[in-house]
Amino acid sequence: MVDAVVTRLRALAADTLAGNWEHDHTVPSRTLYPHQWSWDSAFVAVGWAHLRPDRAWRELRTLFAAQWADGRVPHIVFNPARRGGAYFPGPDFWASARADGAPAVATSGLLQPPVHALAAWLAHRRAPTAQARSALRWLYPRLVAQQRYLAGRRDVGGAGLACIVHPWESGLDNSPAWDLPLAAVPADTAVLRAYRRRDTDHADVAHRPTDLDYARYVALAESYRAHGYRDDGLPQRHPFLVECPLVNAAAGAAEHALAGIAAVVGADPGPHRDRAARITAAVVDRLYDPASGTFHPRDVRTGALLPARTVLGLLPLILPDLPRRQVDAIVAEARSARFGLAARMERPLPSHDRTAPDFEPVRYWRGPSWINIGWLLWRGLRGHGHPELAAGLAASMIRLVATAGAHEYFHPDTGAGLGSPRFAWTAALLLDVLATTAPDPAVPV
């Protein structure tokens, strides 16, 4: 039965990725997300490396061909073959062509967690061919520029951590982590009368961010756009400035990956190891709260740690050099009733504290379970010597897809599929988990 499950799931994942392939990149889904998304493409490259390594490298090349002159990798690269109204906010809203240093292709002006170096390193390790080495030589200076942008222009707090200017940059758009700083953003849902949300054409309104959330998202994007997406003067003019645990842990993990890549392409890995150590130290110093025993985002405008206990607090575990004290604290938090990690999990890992009064099991990042977050935590658990917990999390993720399909996200109690069906990163990361983990024999075929 186990072999049959693996065969079926691999076929499902391969079919999903093939169906979402768009000549030089993979769309997250054919309905809700018809363009190229930044961290989606990194996760997708990890999956393509198991099937078609050539597509893994083309995925990353296409994304980094749209890199801005300052090093930022935009969170959306728009496909000119798709009509402008297929997604909101679309290319006309972002108006990237009017910004200094933007690429020729239309993009957004925001970024997403820098998981790309890790993806490139994993793709190379999966198939260390001449093609892979050539791709790494092309990518390496661009990945370095991405890191330089985060460490330089986005170190708004001056403490060695990158700052996000919009919840979308965290990847966890409407997480309760952002409620307090968002509440300070002046916005009125009337702003949406000038636009049309497209997400609710394809997904249940109850599963998506609210209109008030979107009004604030639009206000923040307009604020950043009004200054040409420049990062100078952000503390004086921008209302949302937060040091995110995921973005910064991803930046630290990227430096570790870049050390490996540097050795392959003939560069010096030493500076990457040094930067990785500095980022990890800053993440612990700035974002770890001994009182709660977990990591929290820091609001740069107020200096305060944001109190919500979300899955963001677990993700510094992807840092290979995270100190043992913080590793043990994350594992304790993950095993608590808030998240329910176990060697045999009864329910999927939620994206927010399931004991909190504002836990919402079907609304996007306010409770549902996501495969990409589970995959990151799974990697961290394996790297820090918790194979039983990693296996339990892997089995839970496999059960989700085996039962509900390759959905965008899942109900954190029932496991029902939510959001877009046939979602690319779910399929891609499932392939990576299956490559090292046997599914539970109790999973139905």
TrEMBL record:
Could you tell me the keywords of this UniProt record? Answer: Glycosidase, Hydrolase
According to its UniProt entry, the protein's GO biological process terms are: oligosaccharide metabolic process; protein N-linked glycosylation
Residues of the Mannosylglycerate hydrolase MGH1-like glycoside hydrolase domain: 33-426
Report which superkingdom the organism of origin falls in: Bacteria
Q: Name one GO molecular function term.
A: Glc3Man9GlcNAc2 oligosaccharide glucosidase activity
Coiled coil residues, start to end: none
Matches recorded under InterPro entries: 6-hairpin_glycosidase_sf (IPR008928), 6hp_glycosidase-like_sf (IPR012341), Glycoside_hydrolase_63 (IPR004888), MGH1-like_GH (IPR054491)
Q: Does the keyword DNA-binding apply?
A: no
Identify its protein family.
Belongs to the glycosyl hydrolase 63 family.
* Protein name, entry field: Mannosylglycerate hydrolase MGH1-like glycoside hydrolase domain-containing protein
Say which species the protein is native to.
Micromonospora rosaria
